Amino acid sequence: MDIKPIGLSFKNTPEDIELYKWIISHSNKSGFIKDILRAAKGDINIPKEEAKSSKIDKTELIDFNF
Q1: How far is it, in rounded angstroms, from Cα 46 to Cα 34?
Q2: Is 59 buried (19+), middle (13-18) or exposed (0-12) by CB count in 10 A?
Q3: CB-side exposure of 31: number of CA atoms within 13 Å?
Q4: pTM, 2 dp
Q5: Element (DSSP H or E) covering residue 32
Q6: CA distance 62 to 57
Q7: Radius of gyration of the chain (CA)
Q8: Labelling 25: which of 15, 42, 51, 55 has CA 20 to 30 A away?
């Protein structure tokens, strides 16, 4: 069986933006999402964890201020 990546899109709504910020605040995004899915499936219990920071730049690009 070939395992392919799964894409996830977010809309420009307050709910989706908040969810996006929460996900990207974790250093291991893929592992974090997999843990959440395993917990939702009932395979494991995940302790609640405080997100490091919800602050992100709109584009997440480096601004060289030219």
Answers
A1: 11
A2: exposed
A3: 4
A4: 0.57
A5: helix 29-41
A6: 9
A7: 15
A8: 42
